[in-house]
Design brief:
The complex is a heterodimer of chains A (410) and B (494). Chain A is mostly beta strands and 410 residues long. In chain A, 9% of the residues lie in helices and 44% in strands. In chain A, the strands form eight sheets. In chain A, strands 2, 3, 4, 5 and 6 form a five-stranded antiparallel sheet that branches. In chain A, strands 23, 24, 25, 26 and 27 form a five-stranded antiparallel sheet that branches. Chain A is globular and about 100 Å long. Chain B is an alpha+beta fold. Chain B has a five-stranded mixed sheet, with no helix packed on it. A four-stranded mixed sheet of chain B has the order 1-8-2-5, with helices on one face. The radius of gyration of chain B is 42 Å and the shape is elongated. Chain B starts with 8 loop residues before the first strand and ends with a strand. The chains are: A mainly beta (410), B alpha+beta (494). The interface between A and B is large, with 40 and 43 residues.
Chain lengths: 410, 494
């Protein structure tokens, strides 16, 4: 009896060992693995938005611990903030705002105008509302309605340092007009300064602004306007503080006529900018010298590109390009591409491609991109459908490290 | 009448001349026998005075205390018939003399009680008016009727005279064996007492021939066995003893069986002899002895071993069962009756397709422990088989789930380390892997529990267990001698 029982227990132990060697697994290993991942993924918080993560923008320029992101949600327009600890753990402070209830903003279109103030931690959301174009401005936690424009929707906007202004303020373009430079508060009975963009060199010119940008030329910024006709104009900043009609200082034909919505002019430095826009499914990305109004290097034609942001990694600059409709692994999941910038312009061969390790159809990975200051460095932030990704480490396609672990031992 | 009186003088008639002492004894016995027979005849006819006198004559010839008792019994009956205090007094005197002659009499208490009753009766009669009892003559012609005996006297009942067995030998002090020498010595000559039934009497004395005779004892008669033993100077005398009393003795040839039990003393032919002394539970003792004529040869056996008791396993179906004691087969098949050393033992009864019966018992020496077992059929183990199958299924499921979880884990580790297309903290594989791992662990746990349950089902006692009833009987043989009997008694207790 005893021998039989010992034999049975021995057999059972052997079976258990065999089973353990084949299939036993500590479920806590997956918690460890989750902590080891250096791509943080944060799902939609408890907000009413049904299409969360339509755009992202850095929420702070500070070089302190952690980082902050501003995230917009569509479906029902929502503004929310996402805070990352120095170890990369994300959390949502109780500062989410239902934009419909507060500002009459029912929805937000794809690639909305969400700008970061280059001189402060402020951001600006310029979007059409029930009352016209609403400009919401402020730092995280203090976003508030700054101005309303009696127009339906903005075509483009940029921060600019206008004459007599100490800090850059948003400049909004609607059709052939620009609105600004803006005062903290309009004088009584004063109308919004409106300037009409002209080009006497072109017969019958009527501007249709696709993107606005600035270059610093002195006390004020000169304004770059990418027109629907494919030309890039440079206007003196002074005209935007009195609104006299003004011919451009110069222009260059980009030969790319971008569709409305989503085109951007990103300032690389005092003279160079990157134009990003798309026509149909073709995206256009090219560096221009605003001083000479000439193109620098070749244009990168990126199918499906919708948005871009500049990334500064230890002096090396790259363009983060969002391609939310890209097919990855057979799934229209979207991806993000990194293009290296140099004095020769844009390297049209992507330095790296990022996508979800488990791509899903309609994931819209890359419909919003941003360079988020984190622990004193910049890291890539990517918006997807109801999910925000932050890359605390990134490698280039050739295996070299773009930037290393920025977290502090999560 | 003569047919009712049996006088038996058995002479171990030897060709040798009977010595004068024995001749005188024979004459006295004849005289006593004659008086005893006449006394008993008179007693039966109600002539109590005559019977008493003749019993007294018998006693005068041979001083057997039983004769004095019969004297008392005769006067007792005379006194009872006529409420004669004088007769009662004579009865009391005779009873007292009987007890004086045989102070170890087995009926001493009964006789003393009779003495007390009769003395009270004497006093009662004497205190009655003169018209009461007679003057003591049974044949007296007193007009007044005799008073009735007291209830106490009535309770004593009618007294019967006793017969007597007398075994004598010349020379005396010979050992008497009754029926079988293996029972041991019965008494030494001369011996008188009461026996019933047929018996073989063996009389043995060192240096004399052995006398054997069969007698038919009658408790109402005087039976005298007188053995004249002739000398056998060519014989030797063996005295066999052992540290274990009652051990069987075999001499020269074991196949003829035991000749007796220790201690034993007997004549034996001179020469070389082999003795085996054995007792159950002990190693056999063997000794070769050279017996010399007219000399005493002692054989002292020291038996090594332990005393034993009997184990008796019975019960329905034991004929197909194997009986084991302490794990060793005692009997291939039952019923099983064997001796085993005293002490604690584990008895197991096994029968194919039946539940085993196992019991720890204590065997005591000279006892029989009987176990009447009732073996129950072994129930099926279908539930255990089902549990084993389920355990195997759960185990296999655990392996599948664990393998999947490990696959996710390995992929994630690899991708995290590679850095190309890195998984994020919300990678669904993390959740899936975790779920699979938990499911695998849970499934393994269920498999383990199920396996343990299966083992429990395999070995658990299912259904009615086999049982056994235990009886312990203490068996002992001892010689018993009473006023009306003698023999070996067996005590049995449960």
């Amino acid at each position: 009896m005893r021998t039989t029982m010992m034999s049975a227990l021995s057999a059972l132990s052997a079976l258990g060992l065999a089973a353990s060697s084949l299939g036993a697994c500590k479920w806590t290993e997956f918690d460890d693995l989750e902590n080891q991942t250096w791509v943080d993924s944060t799902s939609k918080p408890d907000v009413k938005s049904t299409d969360y993560g339509i755009a992202v923008q850095r929420g702070s320029r500070s070089a302190g611990d952690g980082g902050r992101l501003v995230v917009l949600g569509a479906g029902e327009a929502t503004y929310s903030e996402l805070v990352y600890s120095a170890k990369g753990a994300s959390s949502f402070p109780p500062t989410s705002i239902g934009l419909k209830a507060l500002y009459g903003i029912p929805n937000i279109a794809q690639q909305p105008v969400l700008l970061a103030d280059p001189s402060s931690d402020d951001i600006s959301l310029i979007v059409g509302s029930d009352n016209g174009i609403a400009m919401l401005t402020g730092a995280m936690g203090t976003l508030k309605l700054y101005q309303l424009f009696n127009l339906a929707a903005p075509d483009a906007a940029t921060y600019m340092l206008a004459p007599t202004r100490a800090q850059p303020l948003p400049l909004v373009a609607v059709g052939e007009n620009v609105l600004g430079a803006l005062l903290p508060a309009l004088p009584a009975a004063a109308t919004q300064p409106t300037c009409k963009l002209t080009d006497t060199a072109t017969a019958g010119f009527k501007a249709q602004v696709r993107a606005l940008g600035v270059v610093r030329t002195g006390a004020t910024d000169d304004v770059l306007v990418w027109d629907a006709g494919g030309k890039l104009y440079k206007y003196p900043g002074t005209v935007f503080n009195g609104c006299a009609t003004q011919n451009p200082l110069g222009s260059v034909d980009t030969t790319f006529q971008a569709d409305a919505g989503g085109a951007q002019i990103l300032s690389i430095d005092a003279t160079h900018v990157v134009l990003q826009g798309h026509k149909g499914d073709i995206g256009y990305l090219r560096v221009y010298d605003a001083a000479t109004m000439t193109a620098v290097g070749e244009a990168a034609m990126v199918p499906g590109m919708r948005t871009a942001a500049l990334l500064d990694v230890g002096g090396s600059q790259l363009v983060i390009v969002g391609v939310p409709s890209a097919v990855v692994g057979g799934q229209a999941a979207g991806q993000v591409m990194l293009f290296q910038l140099s004095a020769a312009g844009l390297n049209t061969v992507p330095a790296a491609t990022l996508h979800d390790a488990q791509p899903e159809n309609n994931q819209s990975f890359g419909r919003g991109v941003a360079a988020m200051p984190f622990n004193g460095k910049q890291v890539i932030a990517v918006a997807a459908d109801n999910e925000i990704f932050v890359y605390f480490r990134a490698n280039l396609a050739d295996g070299t490290i773009l930037y290393d672990e920025t977290r502090q031992g999560r | 009448m003569q047919s009712r009186v049996v006088f038996v003088v058995w002479m171990a008639i030897c060709a040798l001349a009977i010595r004068p002492a024995l001749g005188e004894s024979v004459d006295a016995l004849k005289k006593a026998q004659t008086a005893f027979d006449q006394a008993q005849l008179d007693y039966l006819q109600g002539k109590y005075d005559e019977a008493a006198v003749e019993f007294q004559d018998a006693y005068s010839a041979r001083h057997f205390p039983q004769f004095l008792y019969n004297v008392g019994a005769s006067y007792h009956m005379k006194g009872k018939k006529a409420s004669d205090p004088e007769a009662y007094q004579k009865a009391v005197d005779a009873y007292r003399k009987y007890l004086t002659e045989d102070p170890q009499a087995t009926d001493k208490a009964k006789v003393e009680k009779a003495i007390g009753v009769l003395e009270a009766e004497i006093k009662r009669i004497k205190e009655q008016p003169a018209t009461g009892a007679g003057t003591g003559s049974a044949t007296g012609s007193a007009a007044a009727p005799a008073a009735a005996p007291s209830p106490e006297v009535q309770q004593l009942g009618d007294v019967k005279v006793r017969g007597l067995i007398v075994i004598e030998s010349d020379p005396s002090n010979a050992t008497i064996y009754l029926d079988d020498k293996r029972k041991g010595a019965f008494a030494t000559t001369p011996w008188s007492g009461t026996l019933e039934g047929d018996h073989k009497v063996v009389i043995e004395k060192r240096g004399y021939t052995v006398i054997e005779k069969t007698i038919s004892a009658d408790p109402t008669k005087l039976f005298v066995l007188s053995a004249a033993m002739s000398q056998q100077s060519f014989l030797g005398w063996i005295e066999i003893s052992s540290n274990v009393p009652g051990a069987d003795i075999f001499i020269d040839d074991k196949t003829v069986g035991a000749v007796g039990r220790t201690p034993l003393s007997q004549n034996i032919k001179p020469g070389k002899h082999t003795f085996w002394i054995s007792s159950e539970g002990y190693d056999e003792y063997r000794q070769e002895v050279d017996v010399i004529a007219n000399e005493v040869t002692p054989v002292k056996a020291t038996l090594k071993g332990a005393p034993v008791g009997k184990l008796n396993v019975t019960g329905l179906g034991v004929e197909d069962a194997t009986i084991l004691v302490d794990g060793k087969v005692l009997c291939e098949r039952g019923p099983c009756l064997k001796g085993i050393p005293q002490g604690d033992h584990t008895v197991t009864v096994r029968r194919p397709d039946f539940k085993s019966y196992s019991r720890k018992i204590t065997i005591q020496a000279k006892t029989e422990t009987q176990i009447r077992v009732s073996l129950q059929p072994t129930p099926g183990r279908g539930d255990a088989i089902v549990a084993y199958v389920l355990a195997a299924g759960f185990g296999a499921g655990g392996i599948v789930l664990g393998t999947m979880a490990n696959g996710y884990r390995d992929d994630l580790k690899k991708e995290i380390a590679a850095g190309i297309v890195p998984p994020d903290s919300n990678d669904p594989r993390l959740q899936k892997g975790k779920i699979f791992a938990i499911a695998a662990d849970a499934t393994f746990a269920v498999a383990g529990i199920t396996a343990l349950t299966a083992i429990y089902y395999t070995f658990r006692e299912k259904g009615t267990p086999s049982t056994g009833l235990i009886d312990v009987r203490a068996l002992a043989l001892r010689p018993e001698i009473g006023p009306g009997y003698a023999g070996l008694g067996m005590g049995v207790s449960w």
